[in-house]
Each structure stands twice: as structure tokens, then as C-alpha cells.
Amino acid sequence: MQILNRYCPYLDTNCEKPLLPEKELKVFLAYPSHKRIAGYIASLLKCDELKALDIFPWEKLSDSAGIIFCKICEQIIESQVFVADITYLNQNVLLELGYAIAKKKLPILIKEENREGSSPDILKDIKHIGYSDIHELARKLSEAVFEPYPFPDFSVEDSELTISFITAQANMPVKRSIYKTIESFAKKADYTIFVDDTSEMPPSHKLSALFKKIEQSSIIVFHMVGTDFKNYNEINAYVAFLAGYALGRQKKMLVLQEAPPDKMIDLHQLRKEYKDSKEAVKILEAFLAPVKEEREEYLKRTKRKKQYERIDLGHPAAEYDINLDEYFVDTPEFSDMRKLRKFLLLGRRGVGKTANFFQLRKEFSEHSQNIITSISPFRLQLASSIEAVYNRVGDLGARALFEMFWEYLILTEIAIRSVRYIKKRKYLMRSDIFDKIEALIQKNIDMDLEFDLRFANLVEKFSEKIFENGGRNLRATILQSFYKDFFPELKVAIAELSRYHPIVVLIDNLDRDWSSASMESMASLINSLLDVMNNVNIYNKFGNCRVITFLRSDIYNLSSRYDPDGDKRQPSRLTWSGDKLKEIISERIAESKGDFRSDSQSLWESVFKKQLGKIEDTFEYVVTRTMLRPRDILTFCTTILEKIHKSGKGIISEQIIYDAEKSYSEYLLKSLRQEFGVGYPDIEEICICLFLGRSHKLTESEFKRRITDNYKIPPGYKVEDMIRFCYETGMVGISFESKTFFVYQGWEYSKLINRARVAKDFNFILHRGLWNFLDVKN
User: Fold this and answer.
1) What is the 3-class SS of 631-691, one letter each residue?
2) How much is the average pLDDT of 371-384?
3) CATH of the domain at 48
4) Which of 151, 198, 340, 730 is deepest in the core (most CB within 10 A)?
5) Does residue 604 sit within a domain?
6) Is there a single domain that holds both residue 698 and residue 665?
7) The pLDDT of residue 653
């Protein structure tokens, strides 16, 4: 005798009753409580042909104390064969039949011949024996108990994430309410839904598919109709059969019974009766509440194993992150641009300018009246054309011409966007102003070309006119060539359009083609754009139109050297604190986990822990190795996750972080080289000559000596310039009075170095993120 702790869906508890072993040739006999059938069964049990079988008719249990289905369950489990009389369709018999098949008991169906009604299609594949003579039935039955039966494949893994709704028919309001409740639960608990809602009995080939769905489900909701429903007995018998199978497979289940119910003894304990859809929903919600709690417990149990597999921090570069909108972190600088208080956003490479560009474009586009134009070249090679123009006409001439160039570009791009805007919104009444703009633009621009090609063509035409001009007035030539035919009208039309459709132009990626050879010409191009922005944004040159530009701070600083009005501009500079960088990571963790309640610190610790070995604060360890840029911390954290995945253990450790730091340190130096390759000496060579294998700190005199002795300073630079360069790139900070100051914290070099020299005892400190790659000594 064996005692098993097994789940019983009927009582929704664990059954600890002794489990008797299966008896050879024991047969459980199920049949409806019908006088005619009971008489046949009594005669059948007396037949000599069945003496070799141990037949147990269900009526032996009719007077048993306690829950009758529990007694039936014990007898079915002990039996090898389950015989059911389906002469009269009976829900109890069908329930027990489904249960027996789930327990792998050989099913045999018997049916009195010449009786009205056929077997349900769903039972067609099960062995049938028709009878009119009891002895003939006994003979056939004695032979059938040795025939094989194709039981369902139980090898399918249970799914922890499927909830099934099985009903043959139901009133539409009830069905809809039940489904909505299941759908709401499934979304919150991350379950998938299977619905079997067949108005007619399914064909036999569907049986195996239904068994498989039940096998894959962790929760099943059955629905039975009331006795006032047409063909209720056939409908409920179908549901009872599948409910019996689910019982045998020990599935968490609920049987909703529409009032008025019939007398179904076996399901009396399991059925929940309701009168209307509100009551049905209330019963269902009460049933699902503990399931939801169990789900949460399950997630906790599996969290340690799976948490790192599903964490996706997105791509460190915003232009490649398809889910940026889901976890974008707002800043005061972004808010100022969104409210059109600021129009020029500066920031270092990797600080989030492009992310702000994409998010602004999205949010402005959410207002259907707005017309949003993006100017963001990706594949342009402007440097050679711009350099040629600049050399031809000089700084003052180029500045004026470049201003006209930007005005022309901005106006034509607005016009193209306006035409596309109205064509996509066919439901809007098209005003004459759109037709006028389209007519003007079609004369001069091929709107079907991609922006990069249109922009390149514009630069080429612009350059050609200048070189064709010879010694004549260049400004007049440009005005004549580009503006005479349609520019004044287009400008007026755009201003008129902006009265009803506010226009925002977003400009990004203008710093991709910079090189030291074209520095002055590109600076002239940038400065002329800033002048045009000023005229558009402050003096409403194009009506209710605003231009917002995103620019790298080092490019802006270089351009400002050639701009006499540079000190008058008031750009926003995008900077980040440690807490804000933690928010960037935690928002992405929250999105991956679906956890939108925990705070930033809890989300960080859920993945990267608070402390690991000698690392007392993992976030502080990571953030101090960044230059307070989103791309830095995303790269470091993504590298940590990659190392965890490659380890195969799914566990973060102190060593994992150290290993990730090696890769990250190399990335950081490479990113500085890419960022400051324009206008500055080679940063990698400077790092090596100053710090490779040496101490991480230098006095000012040591700094100058190492630069002089080990590095060939480029023409036009002094040692002091090299020190400034090292500071302004973030490669080194200045330490005095027990604090270390870096450029990305907002400290301007000239003021800081003067303070340090007054303090006398100061050092230059290599950025902590570069220590590993340069193998410095602490």
C-alpha cells in the first residue's frame, strides 16, 4: 500500500489517502441510474463469460458515506478497465470516462442497440460494443478487455502560463464577461489563453488536440449551461467529459454552472452556480485570486535562474534602440526643449542627444496639428564641398552664403514634410495653402529622393553656382539662382501654414564629417546655422516655426572660437548625475521585468546586487568608472550581463564585474579616441606615455616632464595645451583639498586649475575607468 501526497482538483487540496495498486482484470462499470439499464447490468454480472473479470459496478458505492466521487476515484485507480454504458447520455458517466482515460484505464463503451440517439462524435475513437443480448455482450466484453487503446501522449510539458476556457455554448453576455475577466488575469499574470467554444460536438479528430491543450494548461475554466438551454444535456456532457480528463490530469480547475442546474452528483462539490454575469465574474475572480498568488510565488522561485536571461537594457546607442520610448528618462534640459524654452542642446558623445532628438520628435508628433521636420544626415560627406566653398569666398562671405543655404534647406524640408503630412491625412479637408506649397516645391526639388541625397544635391548645386560666378557678387548669384522663382512665395506660404499647423524642425548629426583639415569651414557652417536659428526662433522669420539643434559640445566649443557672437548664445548642456544614471538602468530593468512599483535602488539590486565581495557598493563601483554618460553605464552594465550569460551559471559575482571592467576600460579609451579625433592630438598615445604601467596620479611638474620626454607635441601646441586637452577630454581630473574634479561634472579648466594652484598641493588623476586597460598602479 502506498500513500501519495497528490493534488486533488475536486477538493482543491492534497489527497493523502492510501493509493491501492492496480488490480489485474479489475473492471469499473459506470452507467446511468435508469431502471432499464440497471436491469441489464444486474443480468450482465451473472454471466459465466465474465467470471474471470473482477467487475465493480458503481452502485456498490451509492450508499457510501462521504463524497461519492472520492470513492469512485479510488475504484477507477484500482481498475485496469473502465466500462461505461452510454445508452442514455449521462454527465456523471462522461465525467468518469474522461477521468479514467486520464488515468490510462482501458475505456470500453457499451450501448443498447436500436435505441434513439447516437454517441457524441467526440467518443467515436473509443471501443464501442452494441448489445441486444446480454450473453453476446458478456462474450464481446470479455474479449475487448485485452485490446489496446491509443492513450493521449502525456509527455507534453505542463505550461505554467496557459489558462483555458472550455465551453460548448453560453449566453453571449456571460461568455463575454467571463472571457474579459480571464483576459485581464492573463495580461497581469503573463498567461496565454486557449478558448474552445464550439457550438456543436467536435469531431473525433479534435479529441487529441483538446487533450493536448488540457495537458498544456495550468488553469482551466469550464462552463455548463442551465437546464432551460436547448440541448443542455448534450452540451454539458461534452464539457463534463473534458472536465473529467482535467480532473484526472490534476489540473487547477473551475466549473461554472449557469442556473438552473441539473442533478449531477459527481460534480456537486466542484460546480459553482451563478444567476447572472456579475455573479459569474465574482466567482471567477475569487477562484483566480489564489492562483495569482501562486503565480507570484512561482516567479520568485524561478527568479534567480531566469532574471538575467530576460534583462534587456537596450542598445547603448539611441539610434539603434527600438524600445527607447519605453524607458526614456526625462531631464530639465529635455523639458525646456519640449516647452520651447531652449533650442540648442549640447552634450558630449554618448550623453543622450540623439535619444532626446528621437523622443522630442515622438512627443511633438503626438499632436496631430503639428508638422515635424527632421534634418538628420547619416551618410553625408560634407567636408570636401564645404571646405571648397569656404576657401573660395573666405570666412565673411561663407558665413553669409551659409546662412542662405540653411534658410533654403529648412524651408524646402518644411515644404516637403507639409506635402507628405496632408497626403497621409486624407480625412482632413485640404486647404489651398497645401496645394500652393506642393506646386512651388515640385518645380525645384525631387521629393522622392531620400534626405541624404537631396541634401548632397543641394550642396553640390550650391558649390557649382559659386565657382561659376567668377568675380561677380556671390550673394546676388545665390539669391538669383535659389530664391528668385519661388523662395519669397514659399516663405510666405510656410508662415501662413504655421498659423494653423505649428512647425518644429529638429536638426541632429551635423558633427559626423568633421576633420581637423576642415575645422574652420565646418565651424562657419555651424555658426551660420545658429544665426539662422536665432532669426527663426526669436524673430519669427518663418512664422510659428521653431528650430531645435542637437550638437556635440566639443564641436560647439571649437566653432565658438571662430564666432564673435559665441559668448552671447545660451545653449543647454546635457549632463547627468549618478542618481539619474541609476534611473536609466532601473527603467530598463523595470521594462524587462514588468516591475513598475520598485524604486531605482531596489531594481538595481535585483540585478546587480548591493554588495559583492570586496565591492561594497556595486553601483558606486560602476558609476565612478563612467564619465557620467548614459552610453558609458549602459555599455558597462550590458557587458556585465554578457559575462553572466557566458559563465553559464546565471549568477553575478565580484569576479564577473572585474572581468566586465576589462572590456569596458578598453571601450572607454576607444570612445575618447572617436570623440576627440577632430582637432586634438592622439589621445591613446598620450594615455600610454603618461600612465601605462605607472601610478594613476601625477603632479603638474611630472605631467609636463613626461609629455616633453615621451610625446611629440604637434605644431602649434604647447605643454599647457596638452594638459588642458587631457582635462577637457575627461581623461584626467584635478585633485585637491581631498576632492577630485572632472570636466563632465561641469568644472571649467581655467578656473579649476587656478584654484588648484592656489591650493598648491594638487595632482592630476587618471580617470578610474581607464586604470584597467592601462594597468596603472594604485
Assistant:
1) HHHHHHHHHHHHHHHHHCCCCCCHHHHHHHHHHHHHHHHHHHHHHCCCCCCCHHHHHHHHH
2) 73
3) 3.40.50.450
4) 730
5) yes
6) no
7) 93
The C-alpha atoms of residue 181 and residue 228 are separated, in whole angstroms, by 25
Q: For helices 683-691 and 700-710, what crossing angle results, to 10°?
A: 120
**How far is residue 116 from each of residues 86, 89, 119, measured CA to CA in Å?**
12, 11, 10
Q: Are residues 456 and 554 in the same domain?
A: yes
Integer Cα distance of 603 and 623 in angstroms:
16
User: How confident is the model at residue 199, as a pLDDT?
Assistant: 46
Around Cβ 511, how many Cβ atoms within 10 Å?
21
pLDDT (average), residues 352-373: 94
Q: Over the stretch 76-121, which tens digit does the pLDDT of each residue have?
A: 999 999 999 998 888 899 999 999 999 989 999 999 887 766 667 7
DSSP one-letter string for 310-351: H-----SSGGG-TTGGGS----HHHHHHHTTS--EEEE-TTS
Same domain? 602 vs 712:
no
Tell whether 540 is covered by a domain: yes
Q: Has residue 572 been placed in a domain?
A: no
Residues 435 and 541 in one domain: yes
Closest residue by Cα to residue 10 from 286, 266, 258: 266
Q: Does residue 318 fall inside a structural domain?
A: no
Whether 337 and 376 share a structural domain: yes
Q: So what's the pLDDT on residue 200?
A: 47
**pLDDT for residue 567:** 73
Closest CA to 597 of 302, 352, 182, 296: 296
Out of 60-69, 371-380, 632-641, 740-749, least confident range? 60-69
Of the chain, the percentage scoring pLDDT greater than 90 comes to 41
Mean pLDDT throughout 69-78? 89
**Residue 268 sits in which domain range?**
162-304
Read off the C-alpha cell for 682.
Answer: 592622439
Backbone φ, ψ for residue 377 (5° rounding): -70, 140
Same domain, 628 and 544: no
- Phi first, then psi: give them for residue 430, nearest 5 degrees: -85, 115
Q: Using only the alpha carbons of the chain, give its radius of gyration.
A: 40
Residues 669 and 691 both lie in one domain = no
Average pLDDT of the residues of the chain: 84
Q: Would strands 54-57 and 26-30 be described as parallel, antiparallel, or unpaired?
A: parallel
Structure-derived torsion over alpha carbons of residues 228, 234, 236, 241, reported in degrees to the nearest 10: 170
| Cα gap 198→558, rounded to integer Å | 73
Q: Percent of the chain, pLDDT > 70?
A: 87
507 forms bridges with which residues in the sheet? 375, 549
Question: Does residue 281 surpass a pLDDT of 60?
Answer: yes
Q: Whole-angstrom Cα distance, residue 409 to residue 441?
A: 12
Question: Taking the model in full, what pTM does it have?
Answer: 0.60
Q: Please count the structural domains in the chain.
A: 5
- pLDDT at position 4 is 46
Q: Amino acid letter at 658?
A: Y
Three cell numbers at 171? 449566453
The domain boundary, picked from 675, 702, 731, lies at 675
Same domain? 539 vs 608: no
pLDDT 10s digits, 174-200: 888 888 888 888 877 778 887 775 544
